[in-house]
Description:
Blueprint: H1 33-41, E1 44-48, E2 53-57, H2 58-67, H3 82-92, E3 97-98, E4 101-102, H4 106-109, E5 112-113, E6 147-148, E7 156-157, E8 160-168, E9 177-195, E10 205-208, E11 217-221, E12 234-246, E13 249-259, E14 265-276, H5 283-293, E15 297-302
Antiparallel strand pairs: 1-2, 3-4, 5-6, 7-12, 8-9, 9-10, 9-12, 9-15, 11-14, 12-13, 13-14
Amino acid sequence: MPNEGLSLRELRPLELSPAYGENESYWPLESRGWVFQERLLSPRTLIFSRDQVILVNEWHRLVINYARLQLTYHEDRLPAIAALMGQMYRLRGNDVYIAGLWKSSLILDLQWHKPNLSFGQFSESSQPRLSLPVPTWLGASVPGHISYIHASAELSSISKLLDLSFIPVGPANFGYVTDVSIALEGPVATAVRKPSKGIFTSQKSSYEIPGLHTDLIRSYPDFDLPKDNKAARISLKVIFLSRNRYDAVEEFSGLVLLEAEHKAYKRDGFVKLRASSYDGDEGKLRELREYVASLPIGCATII
């Protein structure tokens, strides 16, 4: 920027494993050690590109890459990143760390899901939850890969955290907890999980929400239905957490919950309600907005 003493250069997102064959001269800043360090240790990064400003949550990026790694013992998942957590804790001040999530960004950190895999790929959803001292709403409770929602500049929360209760188990930086629960308030809906066979994916079940067209629903169950339950339709509850807009797309994301003991719930999966105005089709977008606006506000305690 002339006469301002400030230079801006497009910067790509950090990749922990650089791709071969890339033109390193196009990204000169990323060849510098201090840039790698600052980006890795910063809780959030603003990236100025040619036509937009992108907010990157580096902790989510680290968790996604880490979840792809092969560990001999699942119980090592949290201790193995304890040192990185310690660095993040110093940057986040008085924040609270719980098995891969941070209290200050809890609503966003809750919005992870198992990826839908194409045919021919191994489905990790067939594996049960891990036997670790963590609640069902943490990504550490499931094996293998996880993804987070796309955090655009227009992402907004439509829910709030009412309560967070837990007892630490072992060193605080390991993040293991017991007797843990969260209470959330937000728009709620009923849902049904049914067996299905995806056209393009290996997904074996999906969610239906009464009163909403199935084309608007993206289903991400945490695990497959038990073999003795393949023909069953399971009644569930959805609590929506956020509204997101990018390009011509609008999304509402939420947790899918299965009733447990003492009027509490366990996480069953994740759902996105998604519509767009591409090709001038405003009908589904209008249907989606009207549906979410009509939902009652409710509470759920999740363990």
